[in-house]
Structures are given as C-alpha cells and as structure tokens.
Amino acid sequence: MTSSSPHLLEMKAITKKFGAITALDHVDLTLSPGEVLGVVGDNGAGKSTLMKVLSGLYHPTEGEILLAGQPITMHSPKDARDVGIEMVYQDLALAGNLPVHENIYLGREPGRERLGFTIVDQKKSRDMAKAHLERLHISLKSVDQKVEQLSGGQAQAVAIARATAFDARIVIMDEPTAALAIKEVGKVLDLIKRLKDHGTSVILISHRMDDVFFVCDRVMALFHGRNFDEATIGNTNRNEVIGWIMGTKGHTEDLAHDRI
C-alpha cells in the first residue's frame, strides 16, 4: 500500500528509556524530501538520543519509524545505512592515517570478490572519489591526501562526502561546524545547501543559531526529552528559538520586530 503522506520520514511517539531514566518521551519528528530540519535543545534535551535511534544505534522503547510511509525497524547503523540513513558524527569517525578516497569508501570499497576476499580496485576508488567530490563541489588537493593533513573544514567535507557516497536519502549531522573557523563554517553550510539541491534531506543538530537560520527550512526544539515547539524558519526568529531551548515561549512583539 502506498502512503499518501508527503513526508519522507516520520518518527512517531518515540520513547527511549535507560532503566528508570526516560531520555525521550513520545517525541515526534517529520522530514520532507529535500528538507533541511534544524533540531535544537539544551544539553540533555534528547537531541543526540533521538538521532541515535534514527541512525540505528539505539532501538526505541516505544514508538515507530516510517520511511516513505513504510514502517522500518533498525537494530544497527548498518540497518540504517541499508535504507539510506547516514549520520555524520561530531568526531567525524574518519581514519586520519588513510587517504581521502579510502575514507570515503571505507568498509564499502569498490572491487571484486575472489576466493572469499574482496580485492580493492584502488584506481576505481580514486576515480569514484574524484567524481563524487566534484559533484558536491568539494575542492581538495588530491584524493590521495591523508585525512590528518586536511583542515577541519576539509575533513568535515570528507565526512559528508562519505555519508552521501551511496545515495543517502537522509543525512544526520551532529554539530558539523562546532570546531571550525568562520571561513570554513560557510563552506560546510554551502555544502549542506548543495545536498538539498541534490534532493537529500538533512537533519542538522546545532547550537549555532546563525547556522540554523542560514541553512534550515524548519526548526524544532526538544526540552527535557519532549517536543517543545517548531516552526518554519520564516515564521520564527532567533530570540524565539532560544526561548524554546530554555523552555519558554517567544514573544510575538520580538517576532514582529525581527521580520521588519
């Protein structure tokens, strides 16, 4: 049966308990095709836990996840990757001593099977990496550079390239600009916009309001493990969203002033 829902992703009443502690309490989240959704909240609000549920690292205690209208169950990050959900972690999870092209395809290297082993095709890996980086307008000196030789922004771009190398439908980014210089922040945000142009949906976890309002279509706030409020970017402002993070509603006069 085909769903009539316009959403690519629906997380319904997601609850996650760790013993007596309830980290998520009936949280809802929706994501449309090609949408960039900002997820905000103070430390301990449940943002990372919710994303770990979506990326297959945690299994929800209650609730359901629908992808393109169909219920899915994930027990590992591999299950999430298999349905097109990728996560770029704050620590990037890259191998610094390996070149760029090997990082992009690490664990999913192009090659051929022989006697039960995969023979990696290094030339194909390089060619595929060059083409993929070019498609995302990521400029690097060489795909043979080791990741440890890259700047923070370049390494972040490689992590995003790795997440999108296999036609991910949804990419989750956890504070992708937190440790970057201002110049590199702009490049990463431009890259997120290009992902949207390619039809990829993005969930951006961020404490940086400038980032959220520059790149996101919609923002939702969590507070103490629950939904607090959400709005399209054009129908809210920084002060209101900061209020949501603190557990208070914004003032309409602030919103009206911000639109002038």
TrEMBL record:
SMART domains: AAA. Belongs to the ABC transporter superfamily. Pfam families: ABC_tran. This is ATP-binding cassette domain-containing protein. Signal peptide: none annotated. InterPro entries: AAA+_ATPase, ABC_carbohydrate_import_ATPase, ABC_transporter-like_ATP-bd, ABC_transporter-like_CS, P-loop_NTPase. Residues 9-249 form the ABC transporter domain. PANTHER family: CARBOHYDRATE TRANSPORT ATP-BINDING PROTEIN MG119-RELATED (PTHR43790), SUGAR ABC TRANSPORTER ATP-BINDING PROTEIN (PTHR43790:SF8). It comes from Hoeflea prorocentri. Keywords: ATP-binding, Nucleotide-binding. One of its GO terms (molecular function) is ATP binding. The keyword Hydrolase does not apply.
